[in-house]
Amino acid sequence: DRSSVPASGPRTAAAADTLASLGTRPWVVADLPARALSVASIDACAAVLAGEGDAVLAGDAGSARVQFPPAYRAHLLQRRGLRVWSGLNMRDRNRVAIEGELEALAVEGVAGVHCVTGDHTRSGHRPDAAAVFDLDSTEATALARAAGHVVSVAASPAAPPVERRAARLREKLRAGADVCFVNHAGGAAPVRRFIDEVGDGIRFIPCIPVVVDEASADLLESFTTLVLPEGFLGRIRDARDPRAEGIALAVALAEEMLALPGVVGVNLSGGREGAEESFAEALAEIARRIR
């Protein structure tokens, strides 16, 4: 019965550790900029990021590219000493495959599981692949919570329908979500308004845009559903040293976000193909300055 919510099981040991730590100090979660299907790239980026933040967000690509399964990617990263917050999308897997990934991630002892519905395959690298969508992110949230994970979900306060975003998040909260990663919404003030609208009961980790060159600025501009602080990209493009300016702006915005009530950490969000290790170094530098 799709309408039923599975009974919540006991938390995994890793999930209990995450919950005990969240709120005691600001968490820094960095995106993983490694190349898909490259163990060497994953190892190289892991070597740069190890010890610099609290976890890496090993996202399940929204672009429908072929990549390692979430549990295997978590295994590769955790053997290198990183704590993993693992992404899981509903586009590429049916219910049985999702349940299998959740059990494998529990065995791996990941810090959290990030449940997203995922974009349709027609919008990604593999339009020839059938989109599954057996579950949506809210249903997956209930399954992940029943498997004992710390469960995170995404919210995009600036994306239409704006007036329904808070209600959608509250629905995911009722399904078992513990944490909300807040997508780029235009800065600290819009995030504060969204947090106030949602109310209590969930922890927030806003995303911080990491832009260090013209190519990464162009990439962010291509995403029509996100909003950046006014003048953010212009300051980086006009700077004598765009990389240094991008790092400084990310640190400043992270500090603003961490001052908001309900915010327990930040997600350093960035990366582009062809500059994986360079982005990992920028993420590590920002994490060091924040911490």
Q: Can you put this structure into words, describing what you see?
A:
The protein has 291 residues and is α/β, with parallel strands linked by helices. It contains 11 helices and 8 strands. It has helices at 13-21, 39-49, 70-78, 95-108, 137-146, 165-175, 188-198, 214-221, 232-238, 242-258, 276-290; strands at residues 27-31, 55-58, 84-89, 112-116, 151-155, 179-182, 203-209, 265-269. Strands 1-2-3-4-5-6-7-8 form an 8-stranded parallel beta barrel, surrounded by 7 helices. Helix 2 (39-49) runs parallel beside helix 11 and helix 9 packs antiparallel against helix 10. It is globular, with a radius of gyration of 18 Å. The chain starts with 12 loop residues before the first helix and ends with a helix. 48% of the residues are buried. The mean pLDDT is 93.
In short:
Helices cover 42% and strands 14% of the residues. The protein is built from eleven helices and eight strands. Strand 3 (84-89), helix 4 (95-108) and strand 4 (112-116) form a beta-alpha-beta unit.
Keywords for this entry:
42% helix, alpha/beta, 11 helices, 291 residues
Mean pLDDT: 93
Structural class: alpha/beta
Order of helices and strands: HEHEHEHEHEHEHEHHHEH
Strand order of the largest sheet: 1-2-3-4-5-6-7-8
Map the helices and strands.
Layout lengths: L12 H9 L5 E5 L7 H11 L5 E4 L11 H9 L5 E6 L5 H14 L3 E5 L20 H10 L4 E5 L9 H11 L3 E4 L5 H11 L4 E7 L4 H8 L10 H7 L3 H17 L6 E5 L6 H15 L1
Helix pairs in contact: 2-11, 3-4, 6-7, 9-10, 10-11
